[in-house]
Amino acid sequence: MSTRTTRTGNWGQDRRLEFIDFRLLWEGRLNRSDITDFFRISVPQASLDLAKYHELAPGNAYYDRNQKSYIADATFKPVFATFESNHYLNELMGLDTGILSPSESFIGWAPPVASLPLPTRKVQPEILVDLIMAIRKQHALVVDYRAMRDEPSIRTVLPTAFAHDGHRWHIRAYCFHSEMYKDFVLGRFFDIIESMPLSGAVPVDTDWNTFIDVVIGPNPEFSLSKKMIIEHDYQMENGEAKIGIRKCQYFYLKRRLNLSDDGTPVDESQQIVLLRIEEPFSSSGNIEHE
User: Fold this and answer.
1) pTM as predicted
2) CATH code at 69?
3) Does 137 score more than 90 pLDDT?
């Protein structure tokens, strides 16, 4: 399997070949009208694309005269599309939530799907633009930021990166008031007061630049059959699965998965536990967040 042209952004023939491959992989069929309608091209051009695909992947599909469609052969192997379940499911979710429009997704027929909406956390577009520009230009910002703890709301920060904890967006930034890197929730910026070029050096963000492996396993108190189910569900090998993250993300991963540092199940229903943190991680995993 090759993924060399996966979502290249090229709306030429490579893009259309990927579309053919995607539809055959996930839906098992397609016809010329699928190609002409999606890409707004002529029937002769779609025929040339299908001929090119057959040249690249002989035997992947055959034409069924009764269905007037090309059908994926039982021996089908994707040439362009990403054969990953998450790739398809994320696209399905994007369609359901409106993040993707039908013209942006290769999915044709979609099964019924329901996603769980979360409360909207508003981020002012003007503030987001200022944060993006500050990272790009390496500018410091004087901001009005309202932390949950009792600290001054006006502070100077140097934004360096964006991060998402699975629930909300943060900006990673060096705080000149605290003299350390912190995570700032985007929705808690009330105003960007001033942008200015950085004067002098700031420390390296070691926790951002350090990658660790969080190793998880099934709850040791589960029966053997339950452990086998969890191992299959999380694609574990030898009872373990590794999650590679930046060191500064550990706090959020631990909270999201309800993990305890010592690996003890929080309650009897907890399915996975922390087995260990692989080097170079060596501290307790505490980070500063606002």
Assistant:
1) 0.77
2) 1.10.10
3) yes
